[in-house]
UniProtKB/TrEMBL annotation:
Protein name stated in the entry: SMC hinge domain-containing protein
Coiled-coil regions, chain positions: 8-38, 214-262
Keyword hit for Coiled coil: yes
A Pfam family: SMC_hinge
Domain SMC hinge: 73-186
Protein species of origin: Timema podura
InterPro entries tied to this protein: SMC_hinge (IPR010935), SMC_hinge_sf (IPR036277)
Keyword set includes Lipoprotein: no
Length: 266
């Protein structure tokens, strides 16, 4: 009897432990459900924001051929998607590049031709300008040695394979401390000079609307894309945890039932 009594106590203890583990798992599961719900809401609002940013960019760039992207890996997307820079030079960069931000970088003129054929075949609206890397000739620039100006291209971050395209657009431009320096250097160096505010030395300055900065919108798009990717990964992990927790709970419940049966027998 003593032995049976000990055995019963032992089983009761086991049952209690199992019940505690089950409760814990259930509260973990509820927490995971709550998180899953939050992430799903965040995801859908991020996707909405991304769609809005895409819409804004498209309205600025005019119609850009949609099929272009499907042709091959030799299509690298518009210039604006292939570099980034500090916010402080956004205006200067946009004034320099203008609509060339939306020129499409491709590996070769052949790829460009193929894409155009495809666009014509699908009767897609809009104009597309390609920058075939095999056709771009960029000569080395001699920049003036001065503390009042810096070559714009040195302030951009991009992959080496896009070097030609970016030097083609930005290589001849200096960012200058102020308009006087810009005007002086534009005359003496023959380079295009621009201030951080977007005033140009040699060229006629025009009004530039900074409230709708294209680089700003592009940056927002990249950030949103990254956040969406992160949220999707987190969601996948959560679902995996949920599955594990569910099976743990099932296992514990069946252990509890076994323990109860043994207990009754004892």
């Amino acid at each position: 009897m003593e032995r049976q009594r000990c055995y019963i106590d032992e089983l009761n203890k086991q049952y209690y432990e199992l019940k505690k583990a089950k409760d814990q798992c259930q509260s973990t599961r509820n927490e995971l459900w709550r998180k899953e719900n939050t992430i799903q809401q965040t995801l859908s609002s991020l996707k909405e924001d991304l769609a809005k940013a895409d819409q804004s960019l498209r309205s600025m760039a005019g119609k850009r051929g949609g099929a272009a992207a499907d042709i091959a890996n030799s299509y690298y997307g518009p210039v604006i998607e292939n570099f980034d820079c500090e916010k402080s030079i956004y205006t200067a960069v946009e004034v320099t590049a203008g609509n060339r931000l939306f020129h499409h970088i491709v590996d070769s003129d052949k790829v460009g031709t193929q894409i155009l054929k495809e666009m014509n075949r699908q009767k897609l609206p809009g104009e597309v300008t390609f920058m075939p890397l095999n056709r771009l000739h960029v000569k080395e620039q001699n920049y003036p040695n001065t503390n009042d100006a810096i070559p714009m291209v040195t302030k951009l971050n991009y992959e080496l394979k896009y070097d030609k395209a970016l030097r083609y657009i930005f290589g001849k431009t200096l960012i200058c401390r102020n308009l006087e320096v810009a005007t002086h250097l534009a005359k003496t160096s023959g380079l295009d000079c621009v201030t951080l505010e977007g005033d140009q030395g040699s060229l006629t300055g025009g009004y530039f609307n900074t409230s709708r900065s294209r680089l700003e919108i592009q940056k927002t798009r990249s950030e949103l894309n990254a956040q969406i990717r992160e949220s999707e990964e987190e969601l996948a992990k959560l679902r995996e945890n949920l599955r594990e927790t569910e099976s743990k709970i099932n296992h514990i419940v069946s252990e509890m039932q076994k323990t109860e049966t043994k207990n009754s027998k004892a």
